[in-house]
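Notebook p. 47: complex prediction with phenylalanine.
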Amino acid sequence: MKDRLNNIEQETLVKIDQAEDFQALEKIRVEVLGKKGALTEILKGMGKLSKEERPIIGQVANEVREKITEKLNEKNENLKWERLRKQIIEESLDVTASKNLVNIGHRHPLNQTMEQLENLFRHMGFSVIDGPEIESVENNFDKLNSPKNHPSRDLSDTFYIDKETLLRTHTSPVQVRTMLSQKPPIRMVSAGRTFRFDDVDDTHSPMFYQIEGLVVDENVSMANLIDTINVFIKNLFGEEFETRFRPHYFPFTEPSMEVDVSCFDCKGEGCSTCNHTGWSMELLGCGMVHPNVLEMCGIDSEKYTGFAFGMGVDRITMVKYGIPNIRLLYDNDKRFLKQF
Ligand code: PHE
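Predicted complex, structure tokens below:
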């Protein structure tokens, strides 16, 4: 009997040592100490023993039970610690790890161009003025000397909200607003969104950006206009860039001109980008403010003269960075935008 008890003890202690989880441990406990467990059976059979044997075997059996219980408890504790250790490793959060999760953006290339130009003109003594994107037909067309039959007023060219209101087709109505609210001398630039009924293609978008400038003072001449434009073109693109002024027509300026700038690829030598002309065509429009416009805006055209210029910010940005397609500027694709 004693041997059997010792065997149970030995075997059970080894099994407990080897148990890998709580389930295995519980199984061992039931097998030995449970209602029908090996040790329980022996204790139940104690009555059959002789008077002499009973206390001796009883004592050994109790010792065995205590040892096994102790070992079970110890193993149970170990398993608990093991479980906690694994949990800590699996669920741990290394607060010192840097994962670069913050994606810091930057100015859109169109905003960069506008800010660069606004800053440049500020240095030249211009003020920067904002105008509304929803404009009156009067400011957008009539006060800019654009006759009722002018093609740009057509429904197929312009987004009308009602008969008197539209999405501005250019930033020039801000000239009108400035002249109506300020007295000369005036030196202002204004940049923002403009809208025309254009289908999207590589160079057109129904919404695009313009920047506009206006100077009104006594003795303002065409020489001032040409000089101002040369200064800002060289500042924007580089000293080596030349300008070429061609006669053109705008209803609100007289005379009117379009300005070309040396080709960005060949710097004027002639290449396939510029059709071997050496020039990037039609970068901006400009001219001397038409006397009718001055008069309609309450400025004495006998005393004052002025010049104005306007250009597409998209076009300038595309030429500057060699962007082949205007859609790229509006797609919001970070892979494209982060290059600038
Ligand atoms: N508003 C003209 C356009 O959108 C550009 C321009 C502005 C021309 C000022 C002359 C003077 O094409």
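Notes: The mean pLDDT is 92. Residues 170, 172, 212, 250, 253, 285-287, 308-310 surround phenylalanine (CB under 6 Å).
Next step: compare against the earlier run before touching the bench.
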